[in-house]
Amino acid sequence: MQALRATLGQRKYRGIVFLTTPPLLSFVGWLGRVLRGRRYAIWSMDLHPEAEVAAGMLDRRSVLGRLLFWANGRGYRGADFVIALGPYMRDRILAQGTKAERIEIVPVWVDGDEITPTLRAENPLVSELGLEGKFVVAYIGNAGLAHEFSDLLGAMNALKDHPRIHFLFIGDGPQRARIEKYAADNAIRNFSYRDYYPRERINSVYGLADVHVVTLGAPFVGIAIPTKAYVSMATARPVLFVGPERSETADAIRDAEGGAVVDPAIDGAAERIAALLRSWSDDPSETERIGAHGRAHVLENFGRDANCRAIGEIISGHWGRA
Questions:
Q1: Which domain does 46 fall in, by range?
Q2: In a domain, 47, yes or no
């Protein structure tokens, strides 16, 4: 209601750009247009209620599901323009009935001045966590319902006796308990799970990794895009993406030559993950080369300044310059 009141009451701006959290802000924009003639756009960082359906939390055919999709569709179709994060998200928005000419693509971005590589030898967290001499495979961030861990856990089990590889999780989320239980049940001792660190330590935290792991469940392609993949590449570390081969994240990693993609839909995914990690742990020059490719690609194609300018040009193209 607060968002609706603000939308109906404002007269100062030529248009309002709505984000997608909390859900259904797009419908607020549509109501503002219908009731007051307000112009609006949507910057789609994720898709709701598609995310709730993909997570099994909502039946699209239910009364509530039909109502939410109707409201969200109205919001998207009524916008002057919609900014999507990538082509797979664009395809989902097109499927709602939004006209193609109203959809713009601006990917997620990374601030290359804030996110910088940290050498392991200069990272105080390495000794704090007792990771000296280890090849650290890190998953950093939310272990959420959009993420797929089965094959990563299988690879952890296959490598549990490896003398150098250590699996480090940092963060929290609804799947944390499952991951910790699996490690305990299978006596995986080269594993640890830590809570989040303050953001000011982000470079030290990401700098713990020799390899970053990013995952995404197949139902979430085009709905959620793991931004940690781009942050991880910006730290000049290889990224192992465990998720669909056809997705924004997979495309970015392949284009960057900044890591590897293992699709769980293809048999033997856990074995392929384990083989990749063994190979990388034995070849530091290769991981350094891959990491350098990833950072260079991210700075060139996913930089903050360039993408902010792109959004500014989209807005001015539709609504004029301030």
A1: 2-109+303-319
A2: yes
Q: What gap in Å lies between CA 243 and CA 248, rounded to an integer? A: 10
**To the nearest 10°, the Cα dihedral for 108, 112, 117, 118?**
-110
> Which of 6-10, 267-271, 314-318 has the lowest average pLDDT?
6-10
Q: Tens digits of per-residue pLDDT, 72-116?
A: 999 999 999 999 999 999 999 999 899 999 999 999 999 998 999
Quote the tokens at residue 310: 């792109």
Classify each residue of 191-222 as buried b or exposed e, where b means 16 or more C-beta atoms within 10 Å of its C-beta: bbbeeeeeeeebebbbbbbbbbbbbbbebbbb
Q: Give domain status of residue 115, yes or no.
A: no
Cα–Cα distance for residue pair 19/230, rounded to 1 Å: 20
In the chain, count of helices (H) and strands (E)?
Answer: 14, 10
Residue 1 CA to residue 60 CA, distance in Å, equals 25
Positive/negative CA dihedral, 11, 12, 18, 19: negative
Count of structural domains, the chain: 2
CATH code for position 170:
3.40.50.2000
Q: Which two tokens stand for residue 222?
A: 């085009």
